[in-house]
Amino acid sequence: MGYKITKKENLSAIDFFMEVEAPHVAKSWKPGQFVVLIVDEKGERVPMSVYYAEDGKIGMFIRRHGVTTFKLWYEKNVGDKILSVAGPLGKPIEVKHYGNVVFAADAVCAQAECYATLKAMKEAGNYTIAIHSFENRDNVYPERFLAKSVADEFYITTEDGSVGRKGHYLDVVKELIEQDKVDIVFAGGKLGSLKKLAELTGSYGIPTIVTVRQIMVDGTGMCGSCRILYDGEVKFVCRDGPMFDAHKVDWDDVIKRDARFVEQQNLARERYIAKLREKGVI
Amino acid sequence: MTRKKPKIIKERVPTPEVPVEERVKSFVEVNLGYDFASAVKEAERCIQCPPEYASCIKGCPVHINIPGFIGKLIEHRDDPKKAVKEALKVIWSDNTLPGVTGRVCPQEEQCEAPCVMGKVGDPINIGKLERFVADYARTHGIEEELLREFVSNGNDIKGKVAVVGSGPAGLTCAGELAKMGYKVTIFEALHKPGGVLVYGIPEFRLPKEILNKEIAKLRELGVEIKLDHIVGKTITLEELLEEYDAVFIGTGAGTPKLLNIPGILLDRIYSANEFLTRVNLMKAYEFPEYDTPITVGKKTIVIGAGNTAMDAARSALRLGSEVTIAYRRGREDMTARIEEIQHAEEEGVKFEFFLSPVEFIGDENGKIKAVKFEKMKPLEERDAKGKRKIVGTGEYVTLEADTVIIAIGLEPNKIISEEASSLKTNPDGTLVVDKNLMTSIPGVFAGGDAIRGEATVILAMGDGKKAAKSIDEYIRKKHLSA
Ligand SMILES: Cc1cc2nc3c(=O)[nH]c(=O)nc-3n(C[C@H](O)[C@H](O)[C@H](O)COP(=O)(O)OP(=O)(O)OC[C@H]3O[C@@H](n4cnc5c(N)ncnc54)[C@H](O)[C@@H]3O)c2cc1C
Ligand SMILES: Cc1cc2nc3c(=O)[nH]c(=O)nc-3n(C[C@H](O)[C@H](O)[C@H](O)COP(=O)(O)OP(=O)(O)OC[C@H]3O[C@@H](n4cnc5c(N)ncnc54)[C@H](O)[C@@H]3O)c2cc1C
Ligand code: FES
Fold first, then answer.
1. A270 in a domain, yes or no?
2. pLDDT digits over B62-104, tens only?
3. ipTM of this complex prediction, to 2 decimal places
4. Domain with B69 in it: what CATH number?
5. What is the DSSP string of B119-135?
6. Are residues A26 and A129 in the same domain?
7. Which residues of B touch A (CB under 8 A)?
8. Quick one: angle between helices B80-92 and B66-75, nearest 10?
């Protein structure tokens, strides 16, 4: 029982890369789809984006957010197993010829999705533009993990300008739109940025498809934990998404629902950190 | 069989229950069931109607020979093991999950409703007797013994069957086929098998131990269970048909209906499925020892009055909240099992009738703080299900709540039917099947909530059994013509 970890590598001050054997998922995964994993018997079901799926394995980028991801980083090493990997879940991105395609990322899930999406888009004959945004130098990933090899144009931004351009993907997207270089924007990451992106591209009428992140349980459409209001209707992110037209999402509600368990998450994280200290791990 | 004509004993032999004060603090099972002596005593109340006339058999959706199994308890009263083994044999020919159905069937509407004894006193406690037979057999090695006798001898495998979903329908279908000599593989989306039995129905009503034993039995029969496999995503129906001789779909009705009223996105409004899955499957009641959180405030309103609503209400109570069930119809229209309603009332759950929610009201942080209801009133006219129709009165009341659980129903999950476009569905999302439970795709069968919408465990179990027979016939014919 369980799924073996085959690679693990730090990416930055906050994120890491992990590869897991999951042949059932790898066989049918397509860009845009995600998995739900459980670390151990006491674990939570958490959704994760997929960086790649090949040879029976899936790669993931993971942020050290809280208990689940701390367990993955501090307790699980190459050769160890995690309890469950279910997927692929959600609907794949529609890959076709759009023209100039931008993929913008400013948090771990989207950094993961950028490469595979643009690879598929390039193969479908699109001109591809990758924008990876990070807060600062410490958070920037090694370049081989980014989408450079599949991007016709490639940008890294940091808020303090320590690497790449100073600023955020929002600045780059705006510039590109003004140069008339954008037919469609795909994006994911921080919900606050996605809301601003929706406002920005909405004002120019540029189609914008983004990954909506919501707290999930099953990931198969049986609980409604991940519900959002989309064009005035209740939709389940896991079943009907996770990619949606950014202009039809009620962002304020999405952002509020993302914080549903903050108190509990913080409590569990503090408790876990105290345990790590006790054991002398940190 | 010679025995004295039984004296009429009007009252049931009671089953002990965990005292209210104790049980509201934990998830331990509430009803403790019979021991052998009290089971025999209750059995002896049965006047043993002949099976041709027995109204209890007619009332049972799968027509278990009820006087037959009760008779075995009476007949072998001096040899508990033999009594239970013989009784279980009778039950198993129609129902393979008596430990479950003895606990969760709405007996008062089925077998016990028409019981002749009910006309003079209490009907025979058929549910608790069924449960007793299953529990005694499970804890005394009798089940294993009988299982060995039931398995088809000879080791040539008759064919390969894929079963999708591991609820009562899927588990039963898999078990029956394995006993006939088929190689069965179950594909289950979640990380634990059992369907509603594992994620929905709480421990205090159905201890997980019973389900675990059922799963262990299946594994002994050679059934393989592939967890984390979502058919339609991980593997398609078409791919299954390439590899297997036949497929059974027992995917249930797992999608919650949510109220389409303002405020539905507020925090601390859960569907009963989300709430119960967090609590039962993920053990959120042991957070932070377990990683999955749940937040329950001081005042919970549960909307709905079926088994799901009772389970959610009693779980919320055990997590420390005051709980009110708000139902748009009247008391007599509640659809939950009587025992669950009684337990809920004993435990302090309050009931409000003729209230239909119209708006969820939130605070400045996006958390629910009250629910606005329209007061309803009943009409004389009845609907198709025999319930009194209701209409709004135009009067409103607002009840405070810091947690809301919506338990107004479930519908089939569409993952498979969306992917396999040749699989015909009804407008309500249930799968179309013929009288042999075959779907519109030859070789693909279905049963349980996937074809009925929200129904019951016993009906799902019955479908699983019937589909196994149809699948056997289908595969035999296929091999014959090949
Ligand atoms: C479709 C989808 C795809 C996802 N893809 C990825 C992915 O590729 N990599 C990844 O690491 N995560 C991804 N996530 C988020 C992932 O589910 C969370 O990382 C996970 O729940 C964290 O669990 P935890 O127990 O470690 O932290 P939690 O205990 O859940 O959270 C701990 C703390 O971290 C913070 N936090 C939690 N989640 C987030 C978040 N998403 N963003 C910022 N802060 C947060 C909160 O402030 C919280 O207090 C995805 C989510 C969805 C819905
Ligand atoms: C809270 C609650 C309480 C209840 N109480 C009672 C009661 O007291 N008495 C009673 O008789 N009935 C009760 N019911 C109803 C009863 O549980 C159901 O009628 C019964 O479980 C239906 O069985 P099933 O096998 O058809 O489906 P389910 O039990 O729903 O099982 C379906 C399984 O299929 C899996 N699945 C779904 N889609 C896929 C897919 N695409 N690929 C792989 N797997 C998939 C699901 O994860 C699930 O495990 C209750 C229901 C609920 C929700
Ligand atoms: S996570 Fe349960 S419905 Fe989406």
1. no
2. 999 999 999 999 999 999 999 999 999 999 988 989 999 999 9
3. 0.94
4. 1.10.1060.10
5. GTSPPP-HHHHHHHHHH
6. no
7. 189-191, 226-230, 233-235, 254-256, 258, 260, 264-265, 267-268, 270-271, 273-274, 277-278, 282-283, 287-293, 295, 365-366, 413-415
8. 170
